[in-house]
Amino acid sequence: MRIALLAHVRQPIRQPFLGGMEAHGWYLAEGLMARGHEVVLFASGDSDPRFTIDPVLPTHYEAVFPWAEHRGKPELIAHVDAGYAAACDRIARGGFDVVHNNSLHRFPLEQRRTAVTPTVTSLHVPPYDALHHFVAVSPSLSHLLTVTSQSQLRAWWPEGAPPEASVLHNAIDPAAWPFVANGNGEAVWCGRITPNKGTHLAIDAARRAGVALTLFGAVEDPDYWAAEIAPRLGGGIRYGGHLDGAALAAELGRASVFLFTPCWDEPFGLVAIEAMACGLPVAAFDQGAAREVVGEAGVIAPAGDVAALAAAIQDSLAIDRAVPRRRVEAHFARDLWLDRCEALYASVTAARPGAIAA
């Protein structure tokens, strides 16, 4: 198939990933190409050059409009709108069989566009006002929607999801996250270092549990880092930097437990399954999709409860490391995910008017 992958453009689709959406876009492009599909990645122009890129914007918009300074400002909205309007027009003229839309932008949802090119839209965030209406009126025979977890399906459609909406869990290639049979007794945390990821609570819980902790990830919120994270470093708590996938996998494999501390309605938690693939049980807050993702591979604590999370750290250390690895292989492996994507593409392209007439 000839597939247009339409990405979010806040950050580039390249390693080291700034977050789960960037990782999702990269793994999807790589996986579909490996299966023989012709893939064009509509993303920021500074994304990974191994892909065929049709730039939505020349560079990711965070480089031009820093998030902390320009969140929601008219200049940023106009800049992004212009990029997506032109990209959607190019897709309509591009002879694509299907669009996989991961943009979180309203233009690709318009029925005048999805009627031209069958579209699968994946929603990677909880519902928010700027997009909710456009999502609600968008389902059709030529437009299917997915969310990353059952909790997000309920969040987007609390009174019941339409038949065009379904759950498509995120996934990883287990081979890229090698299983390690034994850990060093320490904890690890990774993700965007920002308040809604709960980095400071992970530190407090690790100290309370008497377990050393290493943090990995991009410092998204410098003020939060300066006020809440930097003062907590030392005494067994350290920052290991922002690493690419191979280096991060090696660091995860050395540890014994992964801390997953969302402080918002976490849509999935890609970092958790990366750690689980390496054999790490998870101590997690019961927030968003955490319970759905972790399952039998960890211990869940009430959201925001540091004392309970410290106890969960100790309890999770007793879980056999083969358990989290098996859970990833059974539910979150890349081939299962790509099979599901291809099935969605086949379904939505079969429903286009020309196919129905034939």
UniProtKB/TrEMBL annotation:
<dbReference type="Pfam" id="PF13692">
    <property type="entry name" value="Glyco_trans_1_4"/>
</dbReference>
<keyword id="KW-0808">Transferase</keyword>
<dbReference type="GO" id="GO:0016757">
    <property type="term" value="F:glycosyltransferase activity"/>
</dbReference>
<feature type="domain" description="Glycosyltransferase subfamily 4-like N-terminal">
    <location>
        <begin position="19"/>
        <end position="174"/>
    </location>
</feature>
<protein>
    <submittedName>
        <fullName>Glycosyltransferase involved in cell wall biosynthesis</fullName>
    </submittedName>
</protein>
<dbReference type="InterPro" id="IPR028098">
    <property type="entry name" value="Glyco_trans_4-like_N"/>
</dbReference>
<dbReference type="Pfam" id="PF13439">
    <property type="entry name" value="Glyco_transf_4"/>
</dbReference>
